[in-house]
Amino acid sequence: MPTTTDIEQSITRLRAEINHHNHQYYVLDDPQIPDAEYDRLMQTLQALEQKAPELITLDSPTQRVGARPLAGFDEVPHTVAMLSLDNAFSEEEMSAFDRRVCERLEVDEVIYCAEPKLDGLAVSLRYEDGVLVRAATRGDGRVGEDITQNVRTIGSIPLHLMGDDYPRVLEVRGEVYMAKAGFEALNIRQREKGEKPFVNPRNAAAGSLRQLDPKITATRPLAIFCYGVGAVEGGELPASHSETLQRLRDWGLRISPETQKVNGVAGCLEYYRQIGERRAALPYEIDGVVFKVDAVKQQQALGFVSRAPRWAIAHKFPAQEEMTRLIDIDIQVGRTGALTPVARLEPVFVGGVTVTNATLHNEDEVRRKDVRIGDTVIVRRAGDVIPEVVSVVLAHRPDDAHSFVMPDSCPVCGSEVRRVEGEAVSRCSGGLYCSAQRKEAIKHFASRRAMDIEGLGDKLVDQLVDKQWVQSVADLYDRERLSHQRLAGMERMGDKSADNLIAAIDKSKQTTLARFLFALGIREVGEATAQALANYFGSLPAIIKAYKEALLQVPDVGPVVADNLCNFFHERHNRDVILSLQAHGVQWPDVEAAIDRPQPLVGKTFVLTGTMETMTRDEAKTQLQALGAKVSGSVSKKTAYVVVGADPGSKRDKAEKLGVTLLDETAFKSLLIEVAGER
Ligand code: IVH
């Protein structure tokens, strides 16, 4: 049994630690530990204080939420407190929440309103007679900071409400956030300016809103989703949360398109599962889902506990950032010879899986983040993206931590390592002499989106190259090198798997020109470029023969890609491999070349905005360009059509203002079919 003094000491230590991290997170926008670690510290402290309630003091971090406003901004008292949410981390905790709600309301099932939980910064927007008069941060929930000037720069926040039936005073609450793409672009700009990049979109949003100079805020790609109301005077709101959101939408405020009414806890769990599946594809970061009892009467009956309503809960996703120790840094040699430093980690559970390796990208990144062997690091795994080391927890750096040095010879083949001036990547100069590059080239060739050879996994390729049975991709089709007998005798193979693999290799011989081009692994020729080349030229000989000038006519092909193509086909060895593949029966139908086709959309400019469900923006662009259209990044009077997907940006609004025709995904596809049918 721990004694009271033990508990007292632990509490004092935890409070100091949490206060420190609070300051880093809330005041400096520079967190040093992942949120999950912070939550755990807080939970430990709460548990200890529950054991010894006599030790709770007013200044304990459990007794306040958030931090005091920064010195530079005026204080804004919230007439209706800005509350926080309780969290559920499992289905059990969700069920327990639902049970409490039903029991208190004495009903069997409740209707909830489900919304994604955006990872940004809560703000309050006060409208008087429809005019935005004040915007404030949440602060400690009772007093926030006046950020009116900054908020006025955010395009998605109306300065005046639409319609005329809004209450005289309407305080709207929502989350200001930065979309993933805007965040990436901002960090590129920060690096170019020699400034420190932001750790994540939440920090970038918070840092941008807390700028004392609104001109800087104006350059930041911020947006808002509104999710509730605070003070309301001189007007009535509907009897349910979902209808209230609808009204907010009518008044011109931005509401999440993912908002949905669901029935009971089963509906909540299903919504959580579905959003979870789409999470990585959403254009912004979410860290969970919020469920709110929909009927306002029921909300009132349930009421509040100190800092959170009893009628709402945040069902959180597994943490995407965790802390662990970096044991060593290895080098991985990729298909194009790029040397990637990879962190070997003490196993850590993050984003729903156990992670032992994380990429460090390149030498500059290691230096910029000042990552040293032996450091405690923050690891991030978002969606299916490769885990990466985000930053170092400097406070935990051991005395014997040592720096990483990029080797000057390839750790696999010993060839010289070169780094082109102005490029971040160091490369092994061994080309296909390097077995690591050969292995990666073969894996890429066989991959699903290339030649799609099922059953030819990474481990198998490694062995085939190590045994020197397969030296180039053409050897895969050579039945002497890759005989049934050899295959069946390999590790974890047998007669059956050998048969299946040979059948899969044979099947891959029938392919398409685009797949084949992509499979060759020419630098910077991805799927979309390969498709564009195939569409444009129609046959492989036409591409091989094309001069740089001709290649530059292809949509999406710039000078670098054109050079890569010329260099690739100029190389004798590469042409030999292609001939050998064809001699083994690899073939594809030629396609009708776009250069010979009529182009019904010549002279028409399209702008694409938002996310489409059935095709990527690149695919849409390639199709449009094949039909002769021009695809531009900005809307003007000359724009013929703006294609609008989910979560469109400001381009949509601009198009509306200029009276440019808007097409949703369905209308766009009908147009493609109609126009392509003209050919
Ligand atoms: S409702 C009384 N809805 O999460 C309910 N909050 O952990 C107050 N958040 O401070 C909040 N998306 O910053 C609500 N759809 C959503 C939200 C949301 C993100 C944030 C908000 C809040 C925090 C609570």
**Largest sheet: spatial strand order:** 2-13-10-3-9
Alpha plus pi helix count: 24
| Approximate helicity band | 25-40%
Strand content: 15-25%
Task: Please render the helix and strand layout as text.
Elements: H1 4-27, H2 35-51, E1 75-77, E2 86-88, H3 91-105, E3 111-118, E4 121-128, E5 131-137, E6 143-145, H4 148-151, E7 169-178, H5 180-192, H6 201-209, H7 214-218, E8 222-233, H8 241-250, E9 260-263, H9 264-278, E10 286-293, H10 296-302, E11 304-305, E12 308-309, E13 312-316, E14 321-333, E15 339-350, E16 353-359, H11 363-369, E17 376-380, E18 388-392, E19 417-419, E20 426-428, H12 435-446, H13 458-466, H14 484-488, H15 495-507, H16 513-519, H17 527-537, H18 540-545, H19 548-551, H20 559-570, H21 572-583, E21 605-609, H22 617-626, E22 630-632, E23 641-644, H23 650-658, E24 661-663, H24 665-677
Parallel strand pairs: 2-13, 21-22, 21-23, 23-24
Antiparallel strand pairs: 1-6, 3-9, 3-10, 4-5, 4-7, 7-8, 10-13, 11-12, 14-15, 14-17, 15-16, 17-18, 19-20
Helix pairs in contact: 1-2, 3-9, 12-13, 16-17, 17-22
Task: Please explain how this structure is put together.
With 679 residues, the chain is α+β, with helices and mostly antiparallel strands. 37% of the residues lie in helices and 20% in strands. It has 24 helices and 24 strands. It has a five-stranded mixed beta sheet. A five-stranded antiparallel beta sheet has the order 16-15-14-17-18. Strand 15 (339-350) and strand 16 form a beta hairpin. Helix 3 (91-105) packs antiparallel against helix 9 (264-278). It starts with a helix and ends with a helix. Mean pLDDT is 90; it is low at 64-70. Bound molecules: 2-(butylsulfanyl)adenosine (IVH). 2-(butylsulfanyl)adenosine (IVH) binds next to strand 3, strand 8 and strand 13.
